[in-house]
Design goal:
By secondary structure, the chain is mainly alpha-helical. Helices cover 50% and strands 6% of the residues. 35% of the residues are buried.
Length: 150
Amino acid sequence: MAVSLMQAAKRLCERSDWTLTNLSLQKMMYISQMWHMGQCDGERLIKGGFQAWAYGPVSHDVYHHVKPFGSAPIRNVFHGVSDIKDQDDAEFLDALYDALADWTPGQLVSFTHRKGGAWDRYYEPDKRSVVIPDEAILQEYNEFYSQAPT
C-alpha cells in the first residue's frame, strides 16, 4: 500500500523534528522510493513521481508546498495531511530517515546524482518536468545498490 507524497514528506519532517530543508527532504523521499522499489519487487512506497531537476530528483507538488521555507528548515505545513496508516510503510520511512539523518545535503545530492543513475540519465538542463520513470529508479537500485548492506 503506497503513501501519498504529502504523507511521506510529513513523516520524514516529523521524524527529523522539523529540521529538514526542502533539498534534503526531496532527496530522502527519492531514496526512500528507490530503496523500497528495490527491496519490494518494484513496489512503490510513494504514490506520485519524481522529476529530474538541476539539484536532483524532485517531487513537484511537495517542492511547491514547502518552497516558502527556502533553504530553512520546513515547519509543519502539512495540516490536513493524514498520518500514514500502514505501519510497515511508516517504519520503512523512519528507518530510511534514521540511516540518512547524519548525511549533509551535499552527500544526499551526490548520492542522487550518481553517474549512470536514473536522475543522470533523465536530467536535461534546458527541459522542465522531465519525469524519472519507475523502471529507471528500479534499474538504478539494481545496478548500484542491490548488493549494498541493508
